[in-house]
Amino acid sequence: MKVQRPTRVGYRGYDVYGMAPSSSGGSTVGEALNILERHDLDAMPTADALHLYVEASSLAYADRARYLGDAAYVDVPLADLLSDAWAAERACAIRPDVAMPKPAPAGDVTAYDGTCSPASPGAGVEAPDTENLSTTSLTTADRWGNVVVYTLTIEQTGGSGLTVPGRGFLLNNELTDFSTTWDPVDPNRIQLGKRPRSSMSPTLVLRDGEPVLGVGSPGGSTIITTVLQVLLNRLDLGMTLQEAVAAPRATPRNGAEVLAEPAFVDAWGAALAARGHRVAAVTEPSFPQAEIGAVAAVELLGRRRMLAVAEPSRRGGGAAAVVRP
After folding, report:
1. Which is catalytic among the residues 135, 222, 225, 251?
2. CA–CA gap between residue 91 and residue 34 (Å, rounded)
């Protein structure tokens, strides 16, 4: 087992901790939050806040594709990607009412100073998505306020379909999480002994050193946007945790289109289209029941009280309970 320090960013008085590489979850959620923190989201119309969510997530995914891989094999500039100066400079690409061209290009971690500079020449490249949606995630807490967000995967359901003789557990087929084409500068190219990049995003939110919120989800590369949107809903848009989890989702991953659940398209598609976004509904069989993610979350309410929340309907509905309420 490899023990690593988590990623950490400050966000509106909270400390947000996530998973380190080779997962791209902690860095991508963290970078997007750093970009979003530059805007007073709770004071603007929801459509404007969602426009900024799409843009911040797209920029973070552009940098994810360029820099994230197994840190034992590639130099992942984690401190740069999570720095406020980096976020300030990346945020320069965002206009408050007009979508940037997609895919957006990655930033240059070798040359930034936190100020707005001329736009990067050329367009970005849409990174192929090879991750499956069959990850598992659970969140729990105990009476003392210890919180665990546990995300695990063997890739698709059944993994490789092979079991270890005499042991009975399934082997994964995580090789599919590597990039499928050979590029010597791709941080996620296949190499002997290397761990593939994942999007697992078990996330803990603390205030003054005490846990406040734990959030996780399955969903391949949509895990990052699922967790990010729940945090946005809960910490910025005034939703309760139940509302934040149940709200319709979009998954902006720096593609030409913003894929979204049909309910999100119905609610916000026209407003985002007016800002230049191409919003399209996810469909089966690529997405189970045309849904994005399946969140399990816990919020600590103080005085040894907590709230456990699962999906009310996605993937048939989740399970959440508090023992001895």
Report:
1. 135
2. 9
135 has catalytic annotation:
yes
DSSP-derived secondary structure for 59-80: HHHHHHHHH-S-TTTS---HHH
pLDDT of residue 59: 98
Residue 284 has φ and ψ, to the nearest 5°, of -70, 155
Give the integer Cα–Cα distance in Å for 242 and 244.
Answer: 5
What single letter denotes the amino acid at residue 121?
P
More confident residue, 118 or 153: 153
Contacts of 322 by beta carbon, 8 Å cutoff, 6+ apart: 306, 307, 308
- Reported as type and span, the H/E element at residue 274 is helix 262-274
Q: Which domains does the chain have, with CATH numbers?
A: 7-106+128-316 (3.60.20.40)
Task: Evaluate whether 298 touches 140 at the Cβ level (below 8 Å).
Answer: yes
Q: Residue range 79-94: average pLDDT?
A: 97
Could you report how far apart the first and last alpha carbons of the chain are, in Å?
35
Beta-strand relationship, 14-18 and 250-251:
unpaired
Question: How far apart, in Å, are the Cα atoms of 113 and each of 67, 90, 105, 215?
Answer: 18, 10, 18, 32
Name every residue whose Cβ is closer than 8 Å to that of residue 95 and which is 6 or more positions away in sequence: none
At residue 4 the predicted structure's pLDDT band, cuts being 50, 70 and 90, is very high
| pLDDT higher than 80, residue 29 | yes
